[in-house]
Amino acid sequence: MAEKLQTRCVIAGGGPAGIMAGYLLARAGVPVIVLEKHADFFRDFRGDTIHPSTLELMYELGLLEEFLKQPHQEVRELRAVINGQTVPIADFTKLPTRCKFIAFMPQWDFLNFLSTHAKEFPSFQLLMQHEVVDLTFDQQRVTGVRAKTPQGELEIRADLIIGADGRHSIVQARAGLERQEFGVAIDALWMRISKKQDDPQQSFGFFQQGKLLVLLDRGDYWQCGFVIPKGGFDEIKARGLQQVSKRHRQLRRISARPRGRAR
Asked: CA 10 to CA 155: how far, in whole Å?
């Protein structure tokens, strides 16, 4: 028999949306359980940008001062290298916010910080290695979720179920909710490349001959996003990784050239 729990709200997925929703509900005194299928948050190739609007929210929640003590980089201007020329593409110093910069922080640090503070509220629970695999129904009404755990199956009944379980959402599929596509025409291949001592300290985007390589500084290596056309991964696999590596080497050589500001 499956173990059963009862709460006011259950959230499927412990990413930024799920953990933030859980924090805000618990802060308001609402009993909430967040279910995360992994054992921890340590997964590479995730978004690392904490935008000024999010930093403003952290200020309003009274968390900003402590949050900025976490290891991070502050970028007040974004630049890109286009055909060998460094071009400023965004300036955050004029924003009407307290933090006039983007903070680059590994997503696992952000989630660990926020979930640690959420656990200070007695109405918050975070259950790791709990994967939502189905919904429960009373006729046409959703009444809860079923989760797979190391101890077996768990059923949680709740008044509100929030699906924050990503692009392949079980909640969305089982509830029959219509998915809205926003027409993004690109995909990204994520990988690591080694970092050299003379590499720039700021994250860059390199544009060359219609190709784009994004670099996120991880300290001792670069997290790289190689932008490809939407649905183009099968063609790239057919050509082989050597062609992708060749393009990376070309872009790295471009980044190593002396750079001047475009006017």
From this structure: 11
Q: What is the pLDDT of residue 26?
A: 98
Query: Does position 146 have pLDDT exceeding 50, yes or no?
Result: yes
Residue carrying structure tokens 């002396």: 258
Query: Rounded to whole angstroms, how far apart are CA atoms 141 and 150?
Result: 28
Max Cα distance, the chain (Å) = 70
State the Cα–Cα distance between residues 145 and 12, nearest whole angstrom. Answer: 9
Give the position of tokens 């690109």.
186
Residue 20 CA to residue 190 CA, distance in Å, equals 25
pLDDT reported for residue 194: 85
Q: How much is the pLDDT for 221? A: 83
In this structure, the strands spanning 152-163 and 186-194 are unpaired
- Confidence at residue 259, expressed as pLDDT on a 0 to 100 scale: 40
Q: What is the pLDDT of residues 46-61, one digit of tens each?
A: 667 899 999 999 999 9
Q: Nearest Cα to 51, choosing from 4, 97, 113?
A: 97
For the chain, what percent of residues have pLDDT higher than 70? Answer: 87
Strands 102-104 and 49-50: antiparallel
Residue 155 tokens read as 């059923």
* Terminal Cα-to-Cα distance of the chain (whole angstroms): 70
Dist CA 61 CA 27 (whole Å): 10
Q: What are the backbone dihedrals phi and psi of residue 9, each rounded to the nearest 5 degrees, phi first?
A: -140, 135
**Among 189, 223, 194, 226, CA closest to 106:** 223
